[in-house]
Amino acid sequence: MTPLEAAYYEGIIAYIQKLTRASRKKIELALLSNHQATADYEASLSGAADAKIKLNLGSSAATLNGFINVDIVEGPGIFVADLTKPWPWADNSVDYIRAYHVIEHLPDKIFTMNEMWRVLKPRACADVIVPTTDGPGAFQDPTHTSFWNRRSFLYYEDGSPYRESNAKGYGIHAGFRVVRERTDDTFDGPVLAITLEVVKA
After folding, report:
1. Kind of pairing, strands 120-131 and 94-100?
2. Is the per-residue pLDDT at 171 higher than 90?
3. Average pLDDT value for the chain
């Protein structure tokens, strides 16, 4: 967990303690239980409830049961991987990816999306949450190195004129179909939640 993430986590716990007077341990268990239930539900929406290989990218300390919890920082239950380099999974080997608040920390958008597409099986899904450039959250974190909004994904969307006219010249191999999307308002500004299904010939 980075110092910024640790401070954020501690702030949440302190706030809930102030509101409820519950013990720290009780709050931590409730947060982890809710996190797991949310992840399981979202995986089931993407048809991956019983998937064998599910990746939780950028997991930090929020590890999930039934997932390979991936982070660049070592920790209990963490599979350490640097996602700025070729991802350590074979082509077409992953059933589902959960990438919540992680792709904005990866500097090369095309490399990130190509690798995501490469390791996922045909018709597998990736659930992505990313702060959008429509608000300050995309820019405020000093570790954010790429900036996204809904239109950024048009370059990876199968059949999109942006992908069709630019993919070859840009080196984009990834092709996805948008299954669902929504924008949520948060304290730090809007975040985009988008589910992408892999399109492969």
Report:
1. parallel
2. yes
3. 91
* pLDDT number for residue 112: 98
| Cα atoms found within 13 Å of the Cα of residue 1, Cβ hemisphere only | 13
Residue 29 region by backbone torsions, left for phi larger than 0, else alpha for psi between -120 and 50, else beta: alpha
> How many C-beta neighbours within 10 Å does residue 49 have?
14
Please say if the pLDDT value at position 71 is more than 70. yes
Question: Which of 24-33, 44-53, 171-180 has the highest mean predicted lDDT (pLDDT)?
Answer: 171-180
Contacts of 57 (CB under 8 A, 6+ apart): 70, 83, 97, 98, 99, 100, 102
Q: Who's near 38: CB < 8 A, 6+ residues apart? A: none
List the structure tokens of 82.
């640097």
Using only C-alpha atoms, what is the Rg of the chain?
A: 17
Give the pLDDT score at 4: 55
Determine if the pTM surpasses 0.70.
yes
Which domains are present in the chain? Answer: 3-198 (3.40.50.150)
Q: What angle do CA 85, 75, 115 make, to 5 degrees?
A: 20
Position 153 scores a pLDDT of: 98
- What length is written for the chain? 201
Q: How far, in Å, CA of 199 to CA of 59, rounded?
A: 26
